[in-house]
Amino acid sequence: MSAGEKAKAKAEQVVGKTVRKAAHAVHKDSLAAKGAALEARGKTRSEKERTKDSFKR
Description:
Blueprint: H1 3-25, H2 29-56
Helix pairs in contact: 1-2
């Protein structure tokens, strides 16, 4: 996994989780869904990079 992609994936996960939790605190369901989607995209990106790395070995 390249360092840039790893950092991008982790950043998406952290930002998504933060947005989701903040939106839940102020009862903004649509914003919470966007945060959850961002978090999921970060997790998916991370899994994709791990899969690519497993084929390189």
